[in-house]
Amino acid sequence: MHHSFSTKTHTKNPAGGFQQYYFMFRMGMVSHRIIDMSQAAQTLSQYDSHLARNYKPMEGFTIAGSYAQYVIDTTGTYKLDGLSCYGAVNFGHKHPKIVEAVLKTLETPEFFVKEVSNGTAKPGFRHGANDGFGGLTAVSRNFRTEAAEKFADRICGLTGYDRMLPSSGGAEAVETAVKSIRRWGCDVKGIPDGKQLIVVADDCFHGRTTTIISFSSDPTAKHGYGPLTPGFLKVPFGDAEALEKIFDERGTEIAGFLVEPVQGEGGVIVPPKGYLTKCQELCKKHNIMFVLDEIQSGMGRTGRNFAYEHELKTRPDGIILAKALSGGMVPLSAFVANDYLLDAMTVGTHGSTYGGNPMASLIGIAALDVLVNEHMAEKSAELGELLMTELQKLDEPAIKDIRGQGLWVGLELESDKKAKEFARIISVDEHIIVKDNRDVVRLSPPFCTTKEEIKMMAQAVQRVVKQL
Q1: Omega before 219 cis (within 30°)?
Q2: Which of 121, 276, 294, 338 has the most crowded CB, counting CB atoms within 10 A?
Q3: Measured between alpha carbons, how far is 98 from 104 in angstroms, rounded to an integer?
Q4: Angle of CA points 169, 172, 173, to nearest 5°
């Protein structure tokens, strides 16, 4: 089973070299660091005062570069990426096929530069035969581009949906889904405008815009940002009976049910078997749109191309994709749905300056090709099973629960404080970067991680837990 990238494209930075160095470092065979730690401290002091305080970067290291399953800090120390930027780099940092797509958009033929520079180019001037016109970076969606059309064709061909609406980031795609559901509820279902309701789940996470935080369960995400957006009802995640009850009571007012097939920020919570099937049946019964947020769970992370494929026999009415859709290169997202839902969006009712731009579109095509052609979902399933097996061997009282799906594991510890300390120690001392959220630490490395590294990760978990 192949994990690392081919070394033919990046001969100067082969993934094997990263793995060898990391293994030697862990075994105590490398004791030096390439650059003095004072450089990292200088970098922090230089930039820290100018960044807004909405993030608090982990102390102890500053990340400077990345490749495959590794990042490297300013001291030259390699660290295994155990977070994958919340799924944005599922396929590894700088995957050669995706880098190739980026470079392709930056190409400009010599004739193009020459004719523009010397004044030969004029409106209406035609340059000979089509011998390749180079790359295209940004142009308004008011004009047709091959890249956007091919991206839409590729994503709909893979998912089976009729249409997609591209945008620039996950939250923007969620906003697109919310607007589509509301518009459908008004124009098709006949709910008076302003009265359309959308049901969401407790402890959900769909983004950070004002509308999205309005139905968040996290008070920190909401305080001081009012007035919040009305029109949302909440039910417990995984509780189909609660959903049925609210549909029975207010189904004529409800336009859609928006839910994550696996709750990521909520603690890598996998719902009970049969939950998504029952939700879909209830939505069909009450004429309610069933939309799944696959931003973190999609693109192979759970061991299937999309998480709903573990259970559902037919597609939901729409899915939201982002993060790994861009291969970790640029902000890129999409709301993918059937005609009856996305056709509610008519000309002039919604837009996005960078949504579907040619560069992002070519990157998206490359990422989808990598997902399918390199069997990324299968790799995730195999590595996830191995990681779960290795972690379940641990008999540590500080670990309350180990759960997950595919290469996406939630390690629940005894308290928020212990989870935070665990994340710090394993990131700084064991050189495996992870992030805590409340009392859960997420383990979700890229799919190019090796089996040996998965076992090393489990061993590191045990060493750190013993220190708590």
Answers
A1: no
A2: 294
A3: 10
A4: 85
In the chain, what are the domains? 146-373 (3.40.640.10)
Residue 337 C-alpha from the chain's centroid: 18
Mention every residue, 6+ apart, whose C-beta is less than 8 A from residue 234: 199, 200, 201, 202, 215, 217
> Each residue of 28-77: pLDDT tens digit?
433 334 445 455 556 555 666 788 889 999 999 999 999 999 999 999 99
Mutual angle of helices 376-392 and 451-465, in 10-degree steps: 30
Task: Tell me whether strands 163-167 and 432-433 are parallel, antiparallel or unpaired.
Answer: unpaired
Q: Kindly give, in sequence order, each residue whose CB lies less than 8 Å from that of residue 231, ignoring residues fewer than 6 positions away.
A: 182, 196, 197, 198
Question: Among 79, 323, 418, 420, which one carries the catalytic annotation?
Answer: 323
Among candidate residues 205, 237, 247, 257, the one labeled active-site is 205
User: Rg of the chain over CA atoms, in angstroms?
Assistant: 24
Distance, in Å, from the CA atom of 178 to the CA atom of 183, rounded to the nearest integer, reads 9
Quick one: which of 320, 314, 316, 317 has its CA closest to 341? 317
Active site residue 122: no
DSSP 57: P
Q: How many CB atoms lie within 10 A of CB 9?
A: 14
Active site residue 48: no
3-state class of 321 per DSSP? strand
Q: How far apart are CA 268 and CA 280, in angstroms?
A: 21
**What is the per-residue pLDDT across 328-371, written as a single tens digit (0 to 9) for each?**
999 999 999 999 999 988 999 999 999 999 999 999 999 999 99
Residue 97 · residue 366 · CB < 8 Å = yes
420 is catalytic: no
- Residue 242 burial (10 A CB sphere; 0-12, 13-18, 19+): middle
What is d(CA 155, CA 163) in angstroms, rounded to the nearest whole number?
Answer: 9
Helices 240-250 and 275-285, axial angle in degrees (round to 10): 10
Token pair for 187: 């124009």
Using DSSP's 3-state secondary structure scheme, residue 217 falls into coil
Query: pTM (2 decimals)?
Result: 0.90
Q: Cβ contacts of residue 153 below 8 Å, gap of 6+?
A: none
Alpha helices in 185-287 (DSSP H): 210-213, 219-222, 240-250, 275-285
Out of 91, 247, 257, 293, the active site residue is 293
Strands 254-259 and 432-433: unpaired
In this structure, the strands spanning 289-293 and 254-259 are parallel
Q: What is the pLDDT of residues 359-400, one digit of tens each?
A: 999 999 999 999 999 999 999 999 999 999 999 999 999 999
Could you say which DSSP state residue 354 is in?
A: S
Amino acid code (one letter) for 219? P
Q: Residue 65 CB: number of other CB atoms within 10 A? A: 14
